[in-house]
Amino acid sequence: HFQLITEQADIPLSRGAEMKGKCGTNESELEISWLEQAYTLKLFFLKEGHNTSRGQEAFWRLSRIQFTYDTAERTYFKDAVSPGKHTASSHRLSALVTPAGKSYECQAQQTISLISSDHQKSVQLLLSEVRVQPFDITADFVFSEEHKCPVDQREQLEETLPLILGLVLGLVIVITLCVYHIHHKLTANQVQIPRDRSQYKHMG
User: Fold this and answer.
1) InterPro entries of this UniProt entry (predicted)?
2) Which of 22, 88, 162, 180 has the greatest number of C-beta atoms within 10 Å?
3) d(CA 107, CA 169)
4) 3-class DSSP state for residue 110?
5) Mean pLDDT per 10-residue run, the chain (204 residues)?
6) Is 162 within a domain?
7) β-pair partners for 95
8) Which phi and psi (to 5°) does residue 24 adopt?
9) Maximum distance among all Cα pairs of the chain, rounded to whole angstroms
10) Is 36 left (phi over 0), alpha (psi -120 to 50) or beta?
């Protein structure tokens, strides 16, 4: 799900959008256009290596975005100040960073700001319910193991943490009861020595 917002319009990505792309070993490109190419969204992906504590590891990322929009198009722009085609682009972008060989998945909404050729307008790209994999595709329409975005990981942890804490607490209670039962049983089997000396029999 893609959505683009400017000061004048809220532009959703149409279901009937045309898609094409270029797939390479280290560079890939996805182009989406709709409403007779009044709007065109280009996503550029880059695969590269990084030095980490575990050594050299490969990652891919969304490296650049280019959005072309026509303010003369009347579906979303009603009273444009300067109607015509404009282009909005990202600047030094590094988004959707994913380990090589995995797909990127994020249900949460993310916002990426773009710089427009029309300086009177600000453009923001809103991404939600995203599943994408530009490299290392093993079969058509088949995603590799997903790499969840940090927001989704945090939400998943917040959902599972109470269950984990409940299970741990229940386990602690069971262990405590078992230890108490064993201790009580061992204590009951020991010979009880009376503490009151009057109960001892006098010798002789």
Assistant:
1) Lamp2-like_luminal, Lysosome-assoc_membr_glycop
2) 88
3) 31
4) strand
5) 66 89 93 94 94 84 95 84 87 93 94 87 90 92 92 64 65 74 68 55 53
6) no
7) 62
8) -130, 180
9) 122
10) left
Nearest to 1 by CA among 110, 116, 119, 76: 110
Question: Cα(70)–Cα(8) distance, rounded to whole angstroms?
Answer: 12
pLDDT score for 203: 52
CATH code, domain carrying 31: 2.40.160.110
The reply to whether 2 falls in a domain is: no
Domain count across the chain: 1
Q: pLDDT at position 192, please?
A: 55
The C-alpha atoms of residue 68 and residue 8 are separated, in whole angstroms, by: 15
The count of other CB atoms within 10 Å of the CB of residue 64 is 18
Q: What share of the chain is helix, strand, coil (3-state, %, to 5)?
A: 20, 40, 35
Q: pTM of the entire structure?
A: 0.72
Is residue 65 within 8 Å of 114, Cβ to Cβ?
Answer: yes
Q: Is the residue at 4 inside a domain?
A: no
**To the nearest 10°, the Cα dihedral for 34, 116, 97, 149?**
-70
Is residue 23 included in any domain, yes or no? yes
In the block, tokens 């270029």 appear at 22
Report yes or no: 106 and 112 within 8 Å, Cβ to Cβ: no
* Main-chain phi, psi angles of 65, to 5 degrees: -130, 140
- Token digits of residue 68: 């072309």
